[in-house]
């Protein structure tokens, strides 16, 4: 059959044949569910009834006008803030461990190990760390003379709980970001550093003028992951606090899950999911615009 076809046509047929299976899987498991999610967001579906009453924009109005729903986004700010700190620390360790430091591979492995640990296991482990009476953090603070601070309820105080949970994410993901930054540093030509050294540039000048500009695409990638991760946090507060105390640590994704599976408001939960997607797109778009504008102004 292929003998009568030109080489270009045969090549195109083979390419399309190889693409059909992954494309079909992508349509079936990604775009079709996304389309159904959009459709459900305009209904008042309870999740199991065959009837799906049309609700129009009522679900979207409910999300934006109900502070108990949209206000939960404020709890995610702690994860965003700690994510920025996490990237700064990761760059610091990447620069140090990219040098000729003795035992650097051991320290790289040591800092990367938390990332490969199971998220639920990490959550339970830090549950013991943050325990008010017998937690290792409070016992350590008391042992160094900070008795007042050593009585803090890290997971039971509304103003602290989100930052305590976010610090767990910092501990777990910092090593992953560090490895990515080390790879970016190793891709920078050594000739640039040698030329800067000949010109008399100091360590800080080299870092600001050579290292950071060449790492910019990787920093953008990690910031993208940081923003999306901060907006989609679920596992840590779900395991450690169940959203407490009094909903102070409940994240937006937790509220979506609760709306769908606890209260059977699948239509409202679908609308909340679409809004989260739009919010991620807007925030990431603004981030890319600001970073690109900063780069073009040089």
TrEMBL record:
Domain ABC transmembrane type-1: 76-287
InterPro entries: ABC_transporter_permease, MetI-like, MetI-like_sf
Keywords, alphabetical: Cell membrane, Membrane, Transmembrane, Transmembrane helix, Transport
Cellular localization per UniProt: Cell membrane
Membrane topology: Multi-pass membrane protein
Residues that span the membrane, as ranges: 12-32, 77-97, 109-130, 170-188, 266-291
Pfam families recorded: BPD_transp_1
CDD domains per UniProt: TM_PBP2
GO biological process: transmembrane transport
SUPFAM superfamilies from the UniProt entry: MetI-like
GO CC terms, sorted: plasma membrane
Family named by the database record: Belongs to the binding-protein-dependent transport system permease family.
PANTHER family: ABC TRANSPORTER PERMEASE PROTEIN, DIACETYLCHITOBIOSE UPTAKE SYSTEM PERMEASE PROTEIN NGCF
Name of this protein: Sugar ABC transporter permease
Species of origin: Paenibacillus oralis
Taxonomic lineage from the root: Bacteria, Bacillati, Bacillota, Bacilli, Bacillales
């Amino acid at each position: 059959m292929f003998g009568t076809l030109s080489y270009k046509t045969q090549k195109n047929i083979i390419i399309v044949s190889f693409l059909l299976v992954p494309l079909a899987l992508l349509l079936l498991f990604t775009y079709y569910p996304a389309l159904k999610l959009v459709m459900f967001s305009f209904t008042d579906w309870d999740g199991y009834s065959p009837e799906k009453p049309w609700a129009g924009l009522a679900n979207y109005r409910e999300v934006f006008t109900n502070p108990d729903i949209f206000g939960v986004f404020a709890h995610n700010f702690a994860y965003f803030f700690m994510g920025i700190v996490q990237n700064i620390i990761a760059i610091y360790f990447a620069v140090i461990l990219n040098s000729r430091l003795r035992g650097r591979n051991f320290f790289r492995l040591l800092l990367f190990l938390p990332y490969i640990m199971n998220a639920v296991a990490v959550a339970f482990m830090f549950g013991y760390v943050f325990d008010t009476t017998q937690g290792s953090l409070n016992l350590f603070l008391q042992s160094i003379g900070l008795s007042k601070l050593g009585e803090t309820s890290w997971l039971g105080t509304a103003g602290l709980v989100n930052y305590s949970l976010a610090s767990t994410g910092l501990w777990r993901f910092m090593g992953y970001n560090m490895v990515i930054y080390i790879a970016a540093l190793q891709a920078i030509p050594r000739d640039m550093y040698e030329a800067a050294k000949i010109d008399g540039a100091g360590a800080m000048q080299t870092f600001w003028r050579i290292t950071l500009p060449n790492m910019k695409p990787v920093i953008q990638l990690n910031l993208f992951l940081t923003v999306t991760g901060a907006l989609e946090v679920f596992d840590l507060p779900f395991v450690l606090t169940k959203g407490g105390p009094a909903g102070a640590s409940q994240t937006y994704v937790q509220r979506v899950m609760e709306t769908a599976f606890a209260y059977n408001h699948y239509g409202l939960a679908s609308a909340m999911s679409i809004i989260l997607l739009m919010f991620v797109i807007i925030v990431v778009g603004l981030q890319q615009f600001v970073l690109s504008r900063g780069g073009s102004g040089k």
